[in-house]
Amino acid sequence: MTKPLVEVKNLRKVFPIKKGWFGKPVLLQAVDNVSFSIRKGETFSIVGESGCGKSTTGRLITRLLAPSEGEIWFDGQEIGKLDEARIRPLRRQMQMVFQDPYASLNPRMKIKDIIAEPLLIHEKMSAAEREKDVQRLLEVVGLSSFHGERYPHEFSGGQRQRVGIARALAVKPSLIVADEPVSALDVSIQSQVLNLLQDLQEEFGLTYLFISHDLSVVEHISDRIGVMYLGSMVELADKDAMYEKPLHPYTQALFSSVPVPDPRLKREKIVLKGDLPSPVNPPSGCRFHTRCPAAMDVCRTKAPVFQEQEPGHYVACHLYGESKG
Ligand code: SF4
To answer: Distance from the CA of 312 to the center of ligand 1, in angstroms?
Structure first.
């Protein structure tokens, strides 16, 4: 099996959000006890509703945020507790591509300068070498050299995302964390950017952590998928197993709205009742029990263990195996 590039163990992140009674800070549990690994060269996707902790997990892995507890291993090194000075040289190896390319590109800078920025920070090279690299990167993402002289507002959404990808690639990272990278784009442009990401992965041996709420996009790009609900990872499996035989009642509901290619295989759409509970005060036991159509008494008091149910297929649910809580 390919070695993991990233491994997270019992990762937790809490944010103090405001003072409660008697001046006590109220804690928002954004990520709770999450463990998984990402193999070198694969695309691992995290899916879930907004507020499930998927973006926070991506920011923890790239250490834009510090974890409250747990370990983050990157290429054999534990980076969860490193201070900013020791993280900085590692940053070039893990780059992010964001949802809104416009917001992440400085409107006052020319495209060529935006792409050159990480080279200025991380690489010792002459101006001529940098210029050559920028031209190469524009070409790699399907733009022409004249695009380098333009400003972000002169570009379409798809072109701006190409610039975001070129900038991420500039320092030759091994991991790219792409947080909803095509959500702001038209469907026709989405597939162009996804195909570009796949081509670049093949060409440069990149590893992707892909974060999305869009299951058709995730189906297109993923090797394996993790499903998060209210800060916890509830299921993890290969893409095919996840789409064909989801085990967790939340995943079953989430994936029931995805159209199946074979019309003979009818899938009943499961509509979840109730709103997503607040991560400030998550339900006891299984966090999904307030909305789960299969909830049992034990689910209200005992948290299910995230465990391997079938080879490579993990689930946290009392319906399976022996959940010891
Ligand atoms: Fe539903 Fe219980 Fe499984 Fe949670 S542990 S998903 S409440 S059956």
So the answer is: 20
